Amino acid sequence: MEFPKFLLGDNTDYPTAIFVVHTEYPRFIINLENDEVEWLEDFSKEDEEELESEAESLIEQANTFYDREVSRYEE
């Protein structure tokens, strides 16, 4: 099964949280309420260095995705 690059998620146990799930490598979930990121991958030391440079861009893409999705609901 193929998934979109980003998915929105919510949970009634976290009523104010807005989760965006990144489904491609490196997979992660970001809570846009507090910008907390949970990585779903195990990284080697070398991967961590590369990830640092890529993480900012991926998180920015997640925020852009959320803004786009919300604007579509408002239409």
Keywords:
single chain, 75 residues, alpha+beta, 4-stranded antiparallel beta sheet, 40% helix, 21% strand, globular
How would you portray this structure in words?
- With 75 residues, the chain is α+β, with helices and mostly antiparallel strands.
- It is 40% helix and 21% strand.
- The chain is built from 1 helix and 4 strands.
- The chain has a 4-stranded antiparallel β-sheet with strand order 1-2-3-4, covered by helices on one side.
- β2 (19-22) and β3 (28-31) form a beta hairpin.
- The longest helix has 30 residues, at 45-74.
- It is globular.
- 7% of the residues are buried.
Estimated share of beta-strand residues: 15-25%
| Count of distinct strands | 4
Give the mean pLDDT: 92
Inertia-based shape? globular
Cα Rg: 13 Å
Count of runs of 4 or more consecutive helical residues: 1
Portion in helices: 40-55%
SSE-based structural type? alpha+beta
Poorly predicted regions: none
For the sheet with most strands, the description reads:
4 strands, antiparallel
Give the termini distance in whole angstroms. Answer: 29 Å
The ordered H/E elements are EEEEH
Q: In what order do the strands lie side by side in the largest sheet?
A: 1-2-3-4
Secondary structure layout:
Elements: E1 6-9, E2 19-22, E3 28-31, E4 36-39, H1 45-74
Antiparallel strand pairs: 1-2, 2-3, 3-4
Summarize the structure.
By secondary structure, this protein is α+β, with helices and mostly antiparallel strands. Helix content is 40%, strand content 21%. It is built from one helix and four strands; from the N terminus they run E-E-E-E-H.
